[in-house]
Amino acid sequence: MAKTLTGHFGSADTARNALDDLINAGFARETMFLGNDDTALKVITPNDIEHEVREILGRHGPKEVTKREV
Fold it and tell me: How high is the pLDDT of residue 36?
């Protein structure tokens, strides 16, 4: 089953940097979406690689990371 992880960042630049890091790590751009204010980055991920996504998001100091089952 897939999950949507949402990293809530303090700025649009930080969210975009996290997005770039995920893409550089090999995650598909089609599974990532910036929110309307560009400070929330949503990533659809299968269970088995959730920890990798969380690790990359965590490198950018999110205020919060929320999870929702898809």
Answer: 84
Q: Identify the segments of the chain with pLDDT beneath 70.
A: none
Task: Give the residue from 13, 12, 5 showing the smallest Cα distance to 58.
Answer: 5
Residue closest to 6 by CA, chosen among 69, 67, 70: 67
Q: How far is residue 56 CA from its own chain's centroid?
A: 8
The CATH number given to whatever domain includes residue 56 is: 3.30.70.790
How much is the pLDDT for 6?
97
For residue 59, give Cα distances in angstroms to 51, 53, 54.
12, 10, 9
Residue with tokens 């700025």: 11
Q: How many domains does the chain have?
A: 1
Token pair belonging to 26: 């090999």
